[in-house]
Amino acid sequence: MEIPSSSNTSFFEFALHDYLRSHHISSSTSTSCFDLALDFLCKLEESGDFWLFDIRDLKESIRFLKTIFLYVKKCRRRRNCEAVLEHDQDDKGKTLLKQDQEDKGKALLEHDQEDTGNILSERLSHSIICFRIQDMVINIVHDLESAYLLYEHSDESDRKRIAESAMSGSLANIWSLLRTNIKESCTGIFFNYYPPEDPQLVVDLIASLLEPLGHPLIELEDTRRHELQLVRSLIRFAIMRGVECTQLTDLLTHAADVVECAIFECCFDSDEEQVPSQTDSEIYELMDEDIDPPDPQVRETCMHVLTASKKQSRSSYALAVEQKEHRVLVELIDSLLDYLTDLLGSCASFQVLVKDQMLKLHQGVKYLSILLEEEEKLGDEIKDLIGVVVHDAGTLIFSLSVNEIKEGFPKETDLVLFHLYKVLKYMMAELGHNYPLASPHSLFNYPRSNELGCIDFFLKNLKELARCDEVDDSIVFILNRIQMVQDDLVFLRSFLENIKEQRYHTEKLQAFWSRAMEAAYKAELLIDLILVGDKCEDSLYAVARHIKLLKTEALEIYNGQTRTVNKTFIHIPSQLAAAIHNEDLVGLDDAVETITHRLIRGSKQLDIIPIVGMPGLGKTTLANKVYAAPSVRLHFHVRGWCSVSQTCSKHSLLVQLLCSLYSKSPHEYLKKDENDLAKKLRQVLLRSRYLLILDDLWDIEAWNLLEKLLPNDANGSRILLISRFQNLSSQFKPDSNPYHLRPLTDEESWTLLQKKLFDKEGCPPTLSEVGFQIAKTCRGLPLTVVLVAGILATTAQDRWEEVAKSLSSIVLDNEYCMKTLELSYSHLPDYLKPCLLYFGAFREDEVIHVRRLLRLWISEGFVQQAEGKSLEEVAYDYLVALINTSLVVVTDQRTTRSAKACQLHDLVHEFCVEKAKEESFLHIIRCWKGPFCLAEPSSHHRVWIQSSWELKTWELMLIFPNLRCLLLFGYHAFDCEEKPSRILLPKLLRVLDLGDWGFGESFPMEVLLLVHLRYLALCGITSIPSAIVKLSRLETLIVKHPESNIVLPNTIWDIRTLSYLRTIYGKRGFIFAVGNLEVSPDLDHLDTLNLAIDPLSQNLQKLLTKLPSIRRLKCMRDDESRDDESREATRNCDEILVFDCLTQLESLQLIGFRGYGFNFPLNLKKLSLSENCQPWSEISTIGKLPNLIVLKLHDSSFIGEEWVMKEGEFPNLRVLELLRLDIRNWTASSDDFCHLEKLVVRHCKKLEEVPACLGECPTLEMIQVENCSESLANSIKQIQQEQMDSGNEVLKIIIENCCDDTLILSKE
């Protein structure tokens, strides 16, 4: 392809071309070529035609080159002149003293010639570097200009290639320059020629290294980046304080060392095999020295600079704050925090007392950063004090040595730390006067849901405290008082249970109930505050006396008038089974047919089909049925679904649509830019016949956000809108014909009610009349019918008449639905009410992972221990009870048929939100606008923040001092601008989920102060500090999106309460410390674990013996130990991993243990294997497991082309799943799989057929085949025919993407 002629080019192109040519001639010492290059790149961005060319990385690279160019040029000019002068004066003077007059001239001449030669050589070298950098940039612009001209005059098919070639070529040239010229000249440029008279030059150079760190050319370790930031902040702080340059010589020398190592580290290609030069080796040694904690000389240098800065006028601190130079102080404080964190991380172990002191120091330094962010609220005295405290804190931190941290602080350090922390608390208190604070000890709005259950949880905690062997010495003297409170509360608890129902009829009892609950909550609050170090013993003494008086009053009431009142509800049985959500469509067959017809017939143009109707009519259920219909799935190439709701964003809608289109987790898209998501959506829809369902539309805004992204290729694409507002569709399309979903008839309502209550058994004749009357009162709303069925299912049949009377008084509107829900809620046992209200903490229409929900319930104290069951089993019983009331819907099942995910109808969710607010159970902040936006009391127990961009966690600590639960999750998780190093959290938290707020690889130190924490969910961390042992009550630890396996410290064995250690998203696990396992205590309560381990270390067996209660284990091979390429798919007798010591193990997943055999426990129910590469002969070990119900064989778990099953294997197997195996022949007999219910075969492209004996399996319910051979699909069809001939009417067959056809066959 040729460059187009000038007749086809624009004026802009000619002007640019001429300017480049003239510039290239005249700019040998100018920086304008960099500015021109950046301007040209901006022009390309603004043009919009060159959008395939992602130029952001290139702009960052050119800015970086400009900084290097300026530094080399300035350093050369300034330093070379000084060098000649210094050599002339210094050497000449020494020579005159040592040599006589006769030899002086000769010596001077030799010195001058040698030094001048060296200087000239270095000047020439620097000039060459400057020229090459400059010439590189000019050539890049020329290349981009040519590429742009080609791009503009090329076909669409060639444009992408042209853009990508220009981009990759320019970046490759820059990378080559960095790896050669810049790297080779590191010592000459950045070490020998730093400018001591101009410290700002060093600051600018460090800034140039720090700013483009997101660029792929630049990679620095966190510790190196912290070093650079610390040096820069110290220099800037000294400049701001007016410190003389001569006092900064040592610091600048150290800065030069760090910069040299950083530049070398950035430019070093670790993949390139080369022999390092002598200079390289010296720099490597320097890098190793600098990356360790600073040596005493460096720390002394930092302290010297801080001391020099303190001698200046104190008022300059206040002046700096007023002149907005407080960013210098903020940067220094952030660097001190990083330094302190790295220092703590460098110590493998240290004393508990020192641990507490260091954490408090860390928190105190954070206070300084927060104070500076709020400088407009500070008085002059505080402003003036800040700089002094910054100096004192920095001096203290730099004075700490590793030995002091390990062995304990000297008394002088203790005193300084105590004084510093006291001043910081005073300053924070001054800031607190500007906020609507609630005193932690004052009356607060305690939750009113399941109040007796809350007292039970409190009493349980007091018993654990009394049994604790490691009670802090500071609270030993009040243990007797705590025991008295416990004894009195046990009595009050019994009395309150006795008056629970009668109190509604007596004002005196209701008043007593309220006072008793308030006293119990206050006692719990004060004891917990004492445990975190607050001094409130006097307040606890007053509350203890009050509880004693309440006990006396209770005795008087009991002796006088109290009698037990029978309960008005039937207890829910403990043995329950949850069914998958499959709404019964009664009377809506015509609606399904009509909507389906409108979707697949009619105009070829993009069309909008609205479904409208009041809440609870079943619009979403109808759309779901249509969406999954075989004819719809065959007709449309792609299908997507998103729930809009009242608060939506374009990013959220795009994520939902892409997830449904690709069947992927939302976390794959959450971090992506909105524009990238929009391009991705348009690309997948372009030239495809698509169906998109927009559920729960409230206004036209969501449509406006998406409309431009939806192509109309005249191929019959459709948009299905679901809304409760009938006139909304006319705003999208004036001539649209919305489908108005009708209510059920009375007969249809009665039919649906019977299905929900009696299934196929039918209604007893004695209940037919009252049952039909109840169905009539539901006014044709399916949701109401379902909710009423939930009420009747737990109500004695002789009390159905009362339910009918309660329903008959409610009118038909939203209020009717809410009052029906209120009735359902009131019929729940008390212990289920907080569990239901907790759903309000999730987003509307959010699909909730069941195990995560159960762990939250347990950590909150909602779940009471039951004999013979674990807490998780009891919690699951609670969930099933809510499912059976139809308040909660199961959206996904596990292979064992237990609920995997669940959801609420939007009206039920709305009810939960309102009820949670009414009962002070949960405070929802949809958009954080600062602390002054809160008009209500701030003594909330639980807070969920939906949009938290402007949130500062320290404001939460001030506004919600009694906060027990902080949840920041949802689609947008935690898009917060606040730096992780600056977070401060309410110290009484029990539950903390920080969503997807990333901390990099560092564990947030502030969390270690939360001694009451039971549930912790973080994102991205890869190591955990030994101070985690302070969280002695921690039960659940979840890490989302870990970058690598997470290293646990030795102290993890001392957290005896741990029961759930899990990673989410990605094949990562926890690496246990295995040193001194013999003396480490067992983790008796650990139930669920994602484990990463090196099987070669022989530590697996030792480790498993310390985990006697494990029920679910996901075990993966540690990445660093994998040598799969070198191992064969055979094993020796000693290469067996033994799991049969885990007598409680029910579910096991093994990943990456190639060449190993396994011994499994006989009680195993679910087994999943992947990447283990065992021969098929080894599967007999699995086939003999008597209790195995589910088997998943994924990703070369077994290798070989033939699987021959032995007679009698897999006697109880219900589910078998095969994924990405190279099997070709599979042989089985009629005695195998005698209980098989579900078979899934995916991406097994060599497999020719499934065993024909499956046609005789009487229990088979589903076969699903995807991306397999056509012959396999044909064998499935034969089995389907055999099953139908034998009378199996429930078998469902799904065949997808076998060869070029997509078939969905079902017989239900």
From TrEMBL:
<feature type="domain" description="Disease resistance protein winged helix">
    <location>
        <begin position="842"/>
        <end position="911"/>
    </location>
</feature>
<dbReference type="InterPro" id="IPR002182">
    <property type="entry name" value="NB-ARC"/>
</dbReference>
<dbReference type="Pfam" id="PF23559">
    <property type="entry name" value="WHD_DRP"/>
</dbReference>
<dbReference type="InterPro" id="IPR042197">
    <property type="entry name" value="Apaf_helical"/>
</dbReference>
<keyword id="KW-0067">ATP-binding</keyword>
<comment type="similarity">
    <text>Belongs to the disease resistance NB-LRR family.</text>
</comment>
<dbReference type="InterPro" id="IPR055414">
    <property type="entry name" value="LRR_R13L4/SHOC2-like"/>
</dbReference>
<dbReference type="InterPro" id="IPR032675">
    <property type="entry name" value="LRR_dom_sf"/>
</dbReference>
<protein>
    <submittedName>
        <fullName>Late blight resistance protein homolog R1A-3</fullName>
    </submittedName>
</protein>
<feature type="domain" description="NB-ARC">
    <location>
        <begin position="589"/>
        <end position="761"/>
    </location>
</feature>
<dbReference type="InterPro" id="IPR036388">
    <property type="entry name" value="WH-like_DNA-bd_sf"/>
</dbReference>
<feature type="domain" description="Disease resistance R13L4/SHOC-2-like LRR">
    <location>
        <begin position="987"/>
        <end position="1152"/>
    </location>
</feature>
<dbReference type="InterPro" id="IPR021929">
    <property type="entry name" value="R1A-like_N"/>
</dbReference>
<comment type="function">
    <text>Confers resistance to late blight (Phytophthora infestans) races carrying the avirulence gene Avr1. Resistance proteins guard the plant against pathogens that contain an appropriate avirulence protein via an indirect interaction with this avirulence protein. That triggers a defense system including the hypersensitive response, which restricts the pathogen growth.</text>
</comment>
<feature type="domain" description="Late blight resistance protein R1A-like N-terminal">
    <location>
        <begin position="226"/>
        <end position="404"/>
    </location>
</feature>
<dbReference type="Pfam" id="PF12061">
    <property type="entry name" value="NB-LRR"/>
</dbReference>
<keyword id="KW-0611">Plant defense</keyword>
<dbReference type="InterPro" id="IPR027417">
    <property type="entry name" value="P-loop_NTPase"/>
</dbReference>
<keyword id="KW-0433">Leucine-rich repeat</keyword>
<keyword id="KW-0381">Hypersensitive response</keyword>
<keyword id="KW-0677">Repeat</keyword>
<dbReference type="Pfam" id="PF23598">
    <property type="entry name" value="LRR_14"/>
</dbReference>
<dbReference type="InterPro" id="IPR044974">
    <property type="entry name" value="Disease_R_plants"/>
</dbReference>
<keyword id="KW-0547">Nucleotide-binding</keyword>
<dbReference type="InterPro" id="IPR058922">
    <property type="entry name" value="WHD_DRP"/>
</dbReference>
<keyword id="KW-0963">Cytoplasm</keyword>
<dbReference type="Pfam" id="PF00931">
    <property type="entry name" value="NB-ARC"/>
</dbReference>
